[in-house]
Each structure stands twice: as C-alpha cells, then as structure tokens.
Amino acid sequence: MNLDADTLRILGIVKDSFFPLLVAGVKFTIPVAVISFLLGSILAMVTALARISKYKLLNIISSLYVWIIRGTPLLVQLFILFYGLPAAGITIGPLPAAIIGFTLNVGAYNSEVIRASILSIPKGQWEAASSIGMTHTQSLLRIILPQAARVSVPPLSNSFISLIKDTSLAAAITLAEMFQIAQQITATTYEPLVLYCEVAFIYLMFCTILTIIQQRIEKKLERYVAR
C-alpha cells in the first residue's frame, strides 16, 4: 500500500514522539501523581479525623481548609503557588509547586471520602469496642479504620485515576510532564491534533491499567464483606 507524503510525515511524527511522551509520563506524570496521592492521603486522614473530632478548633480549621480547596479550581491553586507566591518573596520550583498543589487538592477531596467512610460504620461498633475496655483511639485504630478502609477503596482509587489526568495541568506551570512535552513537540511539528490525540492515548493506557488493578483489589476485598 502506497502512502502519500503527508501520511508518512504524520506517522513519522507519531513514531518519533511516542517514546519521549512515554518517558515523560513514567518520569514525571506517574511519580508526581503517586507522591501527591500518598502525601494527600495522609493529609486527608488527618483532616477527616479533625473534622469528626470533638475539639471545635480542629473542626473549624479542617473545615475551612476543605472549603477553600474544594471551592477553588486546581489550576488557580497551581498558579498561586508557582506564579503568585514569588510576589510575596516565596519562590517554589515547578516540581515542588505541582506536588504541593496536588497534595492539598487530594487531601481536601479524599478527606471527605475518609470521613464519610468512618461515619458509615455503625455506632454499635464503637459501643462494642468500648464494652470490652478499648479506648477511643484503640477502637478507631483496631475496629473502625480497618472497616472504613474497605469502604473507601473504590472512591479513593477513582481519585487516584483522576489525579493521573489532572497532572496535565502541571504543564501550565512549566513542569516537563507528558502534556508539556506534547506541547513542545507540537510547537516544532505544527501537528496539534496528532500530538494531543497521542498523549490522550497514553493517558488512556495508564488509566486503563489502573482501572484493572482497582477492579482486582475490589474483588479481593469483597471476600471480607459480610453478605
């Protein structure tokens, strides 16, 4: 089959750009997402416990944090960290700014997932733990959180998959992640449709693999759920 010059050129662009895009995804997109999700999950746990705490000050501070982060766009938060803070004498590099921004965002949204999971456990579980002499902390760590973890796995997994896609926003603060590399290649090849479809395909591959892993984890956890 004979191909015209334009088709051959486009195929050459796809072939030459695929590996640099994949490397950027493995080198920046995935690590940034994993680090941000782990740090954000820790922050989410602390925030969730603060929101259900009997201490009013902790409740107010954590609620204010969740309100601000959930009420403002992630892109704006990244711009404040990278472009806005230098005006106040605080300069943060693209990678730290991206990790901080994604961590704060994940922490706020996932805290609501964790809080709802904890509150979904029947109060009788607390009472049963208390009746055998467990303290509030022991009840939380040994009885409540293990059950809440199983409930929260699906929404937290979805949050991580969404975060993989959200890392593309880091291109706006000059982080050399996958979408930023695609923009750079587009600037030299003048083929935005081809490059952006290609990077979308790579994101789709990453998210498909994660979705399969998520389904397997959920299937394993189903064995521990009472029917």
In short:
By secondary structure, the chain is mostly helical. It has one domain (5-224): MetI-like fold, CATH 1.10.3720.10. Helices cover 80% and strands 0% of the residues.
Return the structural class: mainly alpha
CATH homologous superfamily classification: MetI-like
State the end-to-end distance.
59 Å
Name of the CATH architecture = Orthogonal Bundle
Q: Low-confidence runs (pLDDT<50, min 5 residues)? A: none
Number of helices: 8
Overall number of structural domains: 1
Give the beta-strand count: 0
Percent of sequence in beta strands: under 5%
Whole-angstrom Rg = 22 Å
Q: Report the CATH C-level class.
A: Mainly Alpha
Globally, the shape reads elongated
Helix proportion range: over 70%
Q: Write down the CATH topology.
A: MetI-like fold
List keywords for this structure.
single chain; 227 residues; mainly alpha; MetI-like fold; 80% helix; 0% strand
Please provide a written account of the structure.
Belongs to the binding-protein-dependent transport system permease family. Residues 26-214 form the ABC transmembrane type-1 domain. InterPro entries: AA_ABC_transptr_permease_3TM (IPR010065), ArtM/GltK/GlnP/TcyL/YhdX-like (IPR043429), MetI-like (IPR000515), MetI-like_sf (IPR035906). The chain crosses the membrane at residues 28-52, 64-85, 193-213. The protein is an all-alpha fold and 227 residues long. It has eight helices and no strands. It has one domain (5-224): MetI-like fold, CATH 1.10.3720.10.
